[in-house]
Amino acid sequence: MPKYQDHHLYHVHNRGAHQSTVFRRPHHYRKCIGLLRKYSEQYQVTLVAFCLMPNHYDLIVRQEANGSVSRFLQTTFNAFVQYFNVMEKHSGTLFQGPAKSNSIDKEEYLLQLIRNVHLNPVAEKMVRNAAEWEFSDCSVWGSASGDFAGKLIRDAWFSDGKDYLRFLEECQPGDIPQPAT
User: Fold this and answer.
1) What's the rounded mean pLDDT across residues 16-45?
2) Domain extent listing, the chain
3) pTM of the model
4) Which terminus has fewer CB within 10 Å in the chain: N or C?
5) pLDDT tens-digit readout, 52-81
């Protein structure tokens, strides 16, 4: 895994071993989301955007001062695998090796990644619009108010949550809006 740096953003993703289903039941998703939130605070990692899909996950994270994305991922997914193994009477590998990550160094790339993460369930025909998928934070991004990790990013590019949701619905691959003024 690459060395993570403070105040940098990363796209982190992983699949089930042999592309198998990792999140089989709603409580699997909910448990993993709870662990993500718990350990992001413990390891000073901001969870900017996320989506859990049946056979993989995508996270956009930011390592804060003295934080550790590596420890956050290791602790979160070790805890999830232990939970899964007990609940499903499973043993052996659950994920396809260590998580992969890419550094995000351009705002346009960040926006494109967040859009792709949120549109994943739509692309897989699991829901008609991204905010319907309860195992991502898209509905939070689309909310009228509230404080969430991606709010500053969203508000730099969109007038409000409805504007962001319109962007998701209307966006064609490669389209990137200009920052809101």
Assistant:
1) 96
2) 8-170
3) 0.91
4) C
5) 999 999 999 999 999 999 999 999 999 999
Q: Cα 93–54–130 angle (5° rounding)? A: 150
For residue 45, give the nearest of 99, 7, 11 by alpha carbon: 7
- Please give the pLDDT value at position 14: 97
Three-state SS sequence of 133-176: CCCECHHHHCCCCCCCCCHHHHHHHCCCHHHHHHHHHHCCCCCC
Give the residue from 162, 127, 116, 113 showing the smallest Cα distance to 141. 162
CATH of 8-170, one of 3.40.30.10, 1.10.3720.10, 3.30.70.1290, 3.30.750.24: 3.30.70.1290
Kind and range of the H or E run holding 93: none
Say which residues have a Cβ less than 8 Å from residue 51's Cβ, sequence separation at least 6.
57, 58, 117, 118, 120, 121, 133, 135, 136, 137, 138
- Owner of token pair 């389209």: 175
89-147 per-position pLDDT tens digit: 999 889 999 999 999 999 889 998 999 999 999 989 999 999 999 999 999 999 987 78
- How many angstroms separate the CA atoms of 122 and 7, rounded? 31
Distance separating alpha carbons of residues 53 and 180, to the nearest angstrom: 31
Largest CA distance in the chain: 53
Q: Which helix (H) or strand (E) holds 11?
A: strand 8-15
